[in-house]
Amino acid sequence: MKNDNSTLDRTLLRGREYRGASRIDGALVYMKNTHPVGYNELVEITAPDGRHLSGQVLDTSDDAVCVQVFEGTDGLNLPDTRMHFLGEPLSLSVTEDMLGRVMNGLGKSRDGGADPRGSEERDVNGAAVNPTSREYPRDFIQTGISVIDGMTTLIQGQKLPIFSGNGLSHNQLAAQIVRQAKVRGGKSEFAIVFAAMGVKYDVARYFIDSFEETGVLDNVALFLSLADDPSIEKTVTPKTALTLAEHLAFDKGKQVLVIMTDMTNYCESLREISTMRGEIPSRKGYPGYLYSNLAEIYERSGKIAGLSGSITQLPILTMPNDDISHPIPDLTGYITEGQIVFDRELAGRGVYPPINCLASLSRLMKDGIGEGMTRADHPHLSNQLYASYSKVKEVRNLASVIGEEELSETDNLYMKFGDFFEHKFLNQAFDEDRSIDQTLDLAWKALSILPSEELQRLTEEEISEHYQGE
Amino acid sequence: MQGKIIGQVKRVNGPVLQVKGITDASMMELVHVGEGRIVGEIVKLSGSQATVQVYEDATGIAPGDNVYGSGMSLSCTLAPGLIGNIYDGIQRPLEELRKLSGNFIGKGIAAPAVDEEKLWHFVPQVSVNSTVSAGSVLGYVQETSRVRHFIMLDSALSGEFNVDFIEEEGDYNVKHTIASVSQNGESRSLDMIQYHPIRVPRPVKDRLSLSEPLVTGLRVIDSLFPLAKGGTVAIPGGFGTGKTMTQHSIAQWCDADIIVYIGCGERGNEMTDVLREFPHLVDPRTGKSLMERTILIANTSNMPVSAREASIYTGITMAEYYRDMGYNVAIMADSTSRWAEALRELSGRMEEMPAEEGFPAYLATRIAQFYERAGHVRTLNGQEGSVSIIGAVSPPGGDFSEPVTQHTRRFVRCFWGLDRSLASARHYPAISWLDSYSEYADELKKWWDEKSQGRWSKNRERIMELLQKETRLQQIVKLVGSDALPDSQNFILEVCSLFKNAFLQQNAFDEIDRYCSVEKQIAMMDIILQYYDEGSDAISKGVPMVKIRRLSVVQDIARMRFSVSNDNVSEIDRLSLRLQRSIMQLGGLYEE
Question: What is the ipTM metric for this complex?
Answer without folding.
Answer: 0.82
